[in-house]
Amino acid sequence: MADNKYSGVLTSNTWGSPGAIFIGHGGYLLFPHGNVVNRFVAAVTDISNMGYGVAGGTFNVSKDLIPNKLHSKIGGAAGFSTVEPLGGGRFMGWETNAKLGYDFGAFLTVEAHGAYMGLGDFYDSTLTNGNVAQRPINPWLAFVCVKWLVF
To answer: What is the pTM of this model?
Structure first.
């Protein structure tokens, strides 16, 4: 960036618009989750990753504990920056998560979710953690949601 010109990938999320949110992956903290009010609280909120790029993946296993009533899921995710930030590394971190949901009727589900993320050396850089010399603590979350689709 010697010429002070941005050379990364641009998406509509780069400008703060919810235009290219990827939510079908099963992550919660590393990548944005689809059942939250503000999807811009994940480690990677859009594919440009602040211009550093991202490569990662998720793995999820689900099972109906009671067929068509009680659903469970456990999953994980990991991500790497395609470019190493100054003072940091490429590994963004890993995540483990779980969900338990119960269907009360057609289109009415109550779900409990939880996740924990171990941050990688990507966040050792002050450029990626809000210009703070100390790396952030590992994030976690827990929430309950009601999904009700009414026509």
So the answer is: 0.81
